[in-house]
Amino acid sequence: MTQNILEQIPSKGIVVLTFNRPERRNALSIAMMRSLVQRLDELGQHGQVRVAILRGAGPVFCAGLDLAEASNPALVQDSAQCVADTLRTLRYSPLVTIAAVHGGAYAGGAGVVAACDMAVGADDLQIGFPEARRGLLPALITDVLQTKVREGDLAELFLVGNPIDAVRAQQIGLLQRLAPSDRVLGVAMELARGILAGGPQTIIDTKELLHRAFDSSKPIEHTDHSSIEDHLKARNSAEAREGLKAFLEKRPPSWMEPG
To answer: Strand locations in the chain, DSSP E?
Structure first.
C-alpha cells in the first residue's frame, strides 16, 4: 500500500495491514496515520473487504507516537489530529477491526489496540501507557479505553504507568484472546472468518449497536427506543430472511454484499 503500511489480502473479505517502520519500532508518524485512515476509509466504502487485521513488523507492534514529530511545535496540531482520526476511524469504520499484537504496544500504540473492535495478544506482549512520565495527557486514548477498561484499572494504567503483561491485559479487557507469538495472526484470522459467516449488513449494524450500547453520553430512553427500532429493522431484513431460511434448510446462508 505504502512504504509505511503494507497490505495483504490473505483471504476473500479480509485485509491485513502491517505497520512497517520496524527501525522506529513502528512509531505512529503523521504520514503513517494518514495512510492508515485513508486506506480504511477506502476499504470501508467498496464493501469487498469486511475485516481489517492490524499488525506490526519487527519486534513490537507499536511503540506509540513518533516523538520527534510530537515534540516539534510546528507538527503538534497535525500529530494530535491524526491520532484522533486514527482512533475514531478504527472504532467507527464499517469494517470490523482486529489488532494482532506482539512484543509491545505503548501509549498511542496501545490506544490503537483499544480502538480496534477486538484484539489478540501474544504471550510475550507488554502494554503500557507512560504518558504521565513524559508530561503528556492520554486524553484521546481515554475516549476509546473507557468503553473497555474499568475506572480503577484505567487509573493504574495511567497514573502508575508500569507496563502490564498479556494475561493482565486480557483480565482488564484490553485483549480478547491470547496466543503464542507464532499463532497471533492465525487466531486473528479465525476470528475474521467467524465474522465473515455473519450477514454483511447485519455485522455493520451490530457494530453500530455495540457502540451505542457502550456510549455513556446517550440517554437511556433514546438507547432503548433505538434498540427496538434496530431489532425490528433487522427482523424484517433480507439478511434475516435468508439467515433463518438457511438455518431451517441446514445450509450456509448466501449473503449479498451490502450496497
So the answer is: 5-11, 14-19, 51-56, 96-101, 104-106, 118-122, 126-128, 164-165, 177-179
The structural domains of the chain, with segments of one domain joined by +, span 5-196, 200-248
Residue type, 134: R
Helix, strand and coil in the chain, % to nearest 5: 50, 15, 30
Cell of 196: 465473515
CA distance 88 to 141: 10
C-alpha closest to that of 212 among 87, 90, 92, 89: 92
| pLDDT tens track, the chain, 259 positions | 569 999 999 999 999 999 999 999 999 999 999 999 999 999 999 889 999 999 999 999 999 999 888 778 898 888 989 999 999 999 999 999 999 999 999 999 999 999 999 999 999 999 999 988 888 888 888 888 988 999 999 999 999 999 999 999 999 999 999 999 999 999 999 999 999 999 999 999 999 989 888 875 444 344 345 555 655 566 578 887 888 788 789 999 998 876 5
According to CATH, the topology of domain 5-196 is 2-enoyl-CoA Hydratase; Chain A, domain 1 (3.90.226)
d(CA 33, CA 68): 15
